[in-house]
Amino acid sequence: MTIAIIGSGNVGGALAQSLVKAGHTVLVGAKFPMSEKTLRLATIIGEDRLTSVENASRQAEVIIISTPPETIIDLLPQLGKTENKIIIDTTNTVRSKPEGYATAFHALADKTRASVVKCFNSTGFENMLNPDYHGTAIDMFMAGDDAGAKKVVRQLALDAGFAECYDFGGNDKVELLEKFALSWINLAIMQGLGRGIAFKLVKR
Ligand SMILES: NC(=O)c1ccc[n+]([C@@H]2O[C@H](COP(=O)([O-])OP(=O)(O)OC[C@H]3O[C@@H](n4cnc5c(N)ncnc54)[C@H](OP(=O)(O)O)[C@@H]3O)[C@@H](O)[C@H]2O)c1
């Protein structure tokens, strides 16, 4: 599967590495000239995987958004035709939000023809790079209205090494999933547990 990752920072870089390792064709849509972070990623995954946002999006069946949420308004025209594509929104409206929308997900759902799924937002990027805790894989969570798209996204989460990708529900659960991410940020940063923590659902 060809996957475009828009944003070459912490999250984009971690997912790019995990999904390349899983055998997917990954193109990273970056800004040029390349920033320090983008250059660092290029040395890890290969410069040939770095391209413009337009080029990466055009070739991909799945587009992962991993930029600050407010940039989505500028990015929308660069995503091109999105019919029959899946867009995964990894962003959290922690410090800023896109003008006119509650979250980047809402802007994407309103302005594109893609099936939009919220995923890879609820844990730190280090956990996306390595979801293994002492031999136990941690869990991922997703939300969105399109059940078919969520099947594809769940498989990508498993490919990236997560044990399971639990379904939070439809588009109406997207903001709850962002709050879940804020709970991780609260525990890790505000409450001082550190970024080496993760969520795992247990069942009786
Ligand atoms: N950090 C985490 O652990 C974490 C976890 C879950 C979710 N998130 C969410 O994931 C998103 C990204 O976070 P991050 O920590 O990865 O941020 P980051 O390290 O600052 O990376 C952001 C990336 O977006 C790129 N970018 C900005 N505007 C762009 C544009 N118009 N076109 C193409 N690329 C653009 C930046 O490019 P340049 O380098 O060229 O400026 C940078 O590579 C945020 O919404 C955050 O809330 C973060």
Features:
single chain; 204 residues; alpha/beta; 8-stranded mixed β-sheet; two-stranded antiparallel ribbon; 10 strands; 37% helix; 19% strand; binds NADP nicotinamide-adenine-dinucleotide phosphate
How would you explain this protein's 3D organization?
- The chain is an alpha/beta fold and 204 residues long.
- Helix content is 37%, strand content 19%.
- It has helices spanning 10-21, 36-45, 53-59, 72-75, 104-111, 125-129, 147-159, 174-190; strands at 2-6, 25-29, 50-51, 62-65, 86-89, 115-119, 132-133, 136-137, 140-143, 165-169.
- The strands form 2 sheets. It has an 8-stranded mixed beta sheet with strand order 3-2-1-4-5-6-9-10, sandwiched between helices. A two-stranded antiparallel ribbon has the order 7-8.
- Strand 5 (86-89), helix 5 and strand 6 (115-119) form a beta-alpha-beta unit.
- It is globular.
- The model has no long low-confidence stretch (mean pLDDT 97).
- Residues 6-12, 29-31, 35, 37-38, 53, 66-69, 71, 74-75, 90-92, 94, 121, 124-125 line the site of NADP nicotinamide-adenine-dinucleotide phosphate.
Summarize the SSE layout with pairings:
Blueprint: E1 2-6, H1 10-21, E2 25-29, H2 36-45, E3 50-51, H3 53-59, E4 62-65, H4 72-75, E5 86-89, H5 104-111, E6 115-119, H6 125-129, E7 132-133, E8 136-137, E9 140-143, H7 147-159, E10 165-169, H8 174-190
Parallel strand pairs: 1-2, 1-4, 2-3, 4-5, 5-6, 9-10
Antiparallel strand pairs: 6-9, 7-8
Bound molecules: NADP nicotinamide-adenine-dinucleotide phosphate.
